Amino acid sequence: MASNARRRSGTLRFPWVGWLVWALTVALLAGLVWYAGGPLARDRGWLVDGGSPTVDPRVIARLHPDPVLLGAGVIDPVGVPDAAPADPGRVQQAMAATPPELPGRYASAVADLGGGPLHYDLNSTAPMIPASTLKVMLAVAVLDALGPQQTLATTVVSPAPGMIVLVGGGDPLLASTPTSYPFSSMVSPPTTEALAASTAVALTAQGISEVSLGYDDALFTGAVWHPDWPAVDRQFIAPISALVVDEGAAASGVESASPSAARTFADQLRANGITVTGDPSPVTGVDAAELARVESLPLSLLVQELLAHSDNFIAEMLLRQLALASGQPGSFEGGAAALTASLQDLGLWVEGHAIADGSGLSTGNRLTTGALIKALQLAAAREDLAAVLSGMPVGTATGTLTNRFVDTQSAPARGQVRAKTGSLDQVSGLAGYTPTADGALLAFAVLG
Description:
The two termini are 29 Å apart. Helix content is 30%, strand content 15%.
């Protein structure tokens, strides 16, 4: 992978498409979030000071050192604050200011975040390509299935004296060192460095100083890239594997990231005084005593990282975890089936929906803005889904919204709007929530 930014992106080779959707969004928000969100919203502590357009997200983060919040935000982990219902007339008035007769096909919806019917409906039942707004649905589904405290283990086992195996558990943020994750100032993923140190201690206690190393990545199966993804989009995501270090940063252009992860671990074992003979080799079906392990960040934090940075790799890894939790194979097909079933069970599925992957990179995905609104409302209603709301980036402050709302027209949204972005070739979208001047919290979704 060439850069961390690239694996947290989607393609938008026709920028005018994004501008048109943005025009709709800005018109909505400018009408609702006037004079910096209104004194009531600010008094209730819902707002984030977005500062200048170049504000460093880490500055915002220091306002709230609790990593669960990913910096100060509109919503905290305990759920939605008390909010007044929105005035439907105000919503309609705001949407009346949208640019008339924009080319293309668009859908948008607005409702109270706390629940209830739509206050604004433009093609809200029309299936649209969601791009990365699909990650909202994935986040809801995986938290519902696994729970916010679930962790994923990476282990080292010893099937025979002098032989050890590194077993991947599908942790999307397993890092090589404490600083190798680009956002390590926000969260601290487990590291192979720590795992190697623990393994070396266990081996030394057994009087072993030389080993052969195998690696087991059999937890996930099937293709490592989705067949729908154009070759150009492979720059935005590493090959999917149950054993990956640093999100596959050293695995560019290969069919598996696992050998690179195993080599990194071997080098770290050597740094701890253990001789590793030969090259790491693939093994499967190992049933042996455990020597050491590291646990992933809890799922709530993985979801927040997924949403804040629109991380395609985390999305596809969590899609496979959802598949396994649902009794499906850990593959694209298994994940799509599991996510479909989950959305059906949660009441978020409508005719015309289609799921192809977890990241939204596939143009085979279809969602409606009405369903996205329901997903946001569900997250607001359930404490175990709170990470869906607290994980969304803040306008002009954090994540993928750091450089959004920087112009004068959209300035009222700075530090207030929290939303998931979505962009592909000729597709753009935004889904999230915002406080209003009259003390309401609104969920909104725009796709086009």
